[in-house]
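Incident log entry.

Two folding requests arrived from the same account within the same minute. Monitoring flagged them as a possible duplicate submission, but the sequences differ. Recording both here for audit purposes.

Request one:
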Amino acid sequence: MEIRISEFVEGAKNAEGLTVIIDVFRAFSVACYAFDGGISRLFDVSEPEDAFTLKEKYKGEIILVGERDEKKISGFDAGNSPTEILQMNLSGKIMMHTTTAGTNGILSAAGATEIVGASLINASATARYIRQASPEMVTLVAMGYRASMSTEEDLLCARYIRDLLTGRNTDIRDEVKNLRFSSGSRFFSPDNLLHSPPSDFFLCTDLNRFDFVIKAGITSEGYAELFKIDV
């Protein structure tokens, strides 16, 4: 198994084989909590306008979740915040999700043979899924901050999954805790309390909380539908 680590949207565009799009803060952490909360379907879309369009198309109770500049989009039901997701009744609802980095990474991975989304909270499950699939090529894409700046949490998650795949029993718990003082420090800024509260940091760094992967399938319309797969 060949394993590559790349970054940003360009990395997603050039990804080959089974591709893991990593966004710890916060896209795929939000997706994990949404599935755990009982969401019935989850779509990743590129732009807010796409979410509004899909809301008109699908029957049932629809919620719009996402961010621009880290803040909730006007007209949306929630921002890209696991704290907000945990406060919502999601059972049986359909979720449309758009973010600056993670969802666009999913939609950009056109060359992948298979796409999954990952975070620290389902990293071990993701590695188990990959081992079971046994692909020849794995590309781990760390999306970074706004898909343009390297971040410790996404690269840490990528390295951790790589180590699990190569048989290294790496203990990253201290590194995860220390994210609070580096890229995770923004969750503790008074200016961000309303859209990126401290609880988001702890929810996004609860290492291996979930035993499922998030697999993405690109629809004929160019959106992505995400599926929860227990492993």
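Request two (distinct sequence, not a duplicate):
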Amino acid sequence: MQLGFIGLGSIGNPMAANLVRAGHHVTVHDLSRERAQNLLARGARWAASPRATAAAAEVLFTSLPGPRQIREVIEGKDGAMRGLAPGSLWIDMSTTDLAETRRLAAAFAERDVAVLEAPVTGGVANAYAGKLSIFVGGSAEAYGRAAPLLGALGDKILHLGPIGSAAVAKLITNLMCFVHEVALGEGLVLGTRLGLDTIKLWEAIKVSYADSFVARVDGPDIFAGNYGANFSIALACKDIGLTLGLAREAGLTLEAAELVERLYTAARAQYGDDAGCLSAVRDIETRSGVSLPRKLTAAP
């Protein structure tokens, strides 16, 4: 199948690679051609613009940082909306704004282009392994067309309902992830201050009700001083802000989310936009005067 893929970051690049590996003809585009070199070496083709990428594709994938970048890629001067032919399909795998997702889906419907939102979760390692979890929103017909392609990218694919369903689910799960990260950081810092062996405490967490994907995956990164380099704190703050915006529209106050937003915003101010999302844990260490171990001495 003729596919297009725009956005070759830490998650987009391995997803595009898996589509190439599955035998599809993939045309790619990114702000940096350097990010595409591994894909071009495997047989992907380069397009000079989003419009050219879309024009070469029956199905166009995008994996972009947020609403602003999606608008630029889709509706910009040389945007993908101008290139997609009637009857084609756009699959947006970004984590983005609910209202924007619905607006763009309506605009594409006027051009007879089907739209699916398909944000992903699971991290970079699972992106390379083709084992992402994928939340899908859109029509059953469009989902049926896309399912074989999504199967090359993930092993847990949930069709949650109409357009907008996946955006809401992804923002909620991301918010819960950030809450877990803060709880993990504070728990490890408290235990360390009180004299516990930090790694043994982490082992206790993993066999308790406090266990989580976050504890298992982020623990080793924290102990390595990595602090989530594959996902920036700027993106984390963007996602928290979008989630709180949805809560306000729904007439809800999310107190834990508001607290986490303050902690992540403070860490972003301290360490910069490009710092990893776990910099919130780094900031907890700094403010408490407790340094967690930088060597994992127990098996993960």
